Amino acid sequence: MGALRDHHLAPSQEFMPPLDEGSFLFMPSLMPHASIGEALDVVRKQDMAIQAIPEVEMAVGKIGRVDSPLDPAPISMIETIINYKTEYKSDAQGYPILYRYDEKGDRFARDEQGALIEDPSGRPFRQWREHIDSAQDIWDEIAEVAEIPGTTGAPKLQPIAARIVMLQTGVRAPMAVRIRGDRLEEIEAVGLEVERILKEVPGVKPSSVVADRIVGKPYLEIEIDREAAARYGVSIRGVQDVIETAIGGQRVTTTVEGRERYPVRVRYQRELRDRFESLGRILIAAADGSQIPMKQISTMRYGRGPQAIKSEDTSYVGNVISISRTTTRKSTWSKPAARIWTPRSSPASSCFRRVPSGRPSLAATRIKSAAPRRWPSSCPWPCS
Question: Span 18-87+129-154: which CATH code?
């Protein structure tokens, strides 16, 4: 009974043995201002680097999402499925295959084509290199070769387990710090501070600690000069229609090909809208039939904004994901993190308090939320 009592888990702890799915789900993130071309280039480079690892059988990266609200993945989020080889060559049932082994030559025997020869009294053929002892070693090499400037780290995930974790916690990691507030800039700033603090916790992998980069997506803002538009006899609705059609594209019809439906959109060719100067030369028809360049009746500029807005209980939300070194029990990092966090005189420790998420599920024992308080007068950050 004493041994059982010593190993008994408290209600705020859990134990789930890790499952070996034979594959990884690598989910790094780019900076919010990364373009589609840059994201494609990063995915291509990471796939090539991961595929070059001898233990990796296949690596396929994906960016973007389907046209559905159930998949809110931005362009900056990469999902790469990585299948790695089993430690020993095995059959369809997963049992190791035995091959003929030459004891004198200390090597496996091969036929004229160089293929291994099956032998019931032989030895299994190991496919991993000598220094690779577990799947964790393969993951460490993946994380090392896939590190590209401008990308964040990624927690160790497996496809099936990751989906279960996402359903339980709402984030793509077994553990996270949830930050709530009213202003996205403050949530991102506090998240970066929490990220720096969690990287110092002994039970947390520093490379797996990633805070949401919320603000930083470039937006093209076009402000119509109403007085200039009235002077040329151009209506506000007419200017907005040109902006919608020429730049964004307007759906005019739908093609029907059997069971498939494809929308047909009309807009300017790419070379007429791919530069800031080209947009200013877009022509707008006035009431007398004259063509007015857009730059004469509007002001165009680039602004920074969020790439995605997350909310919960009427508040904006930002997450700082992390993973422990050995287990998914929150006690391995929540208590050490609290000891490091509490003495700090940083905005994250003095302006925010941690409260339970309140959901009666397994996620409530692992995720802590941070609810904003009033900023103290000594806080150097902008007050709300």
Answer: 3.30.70.1430
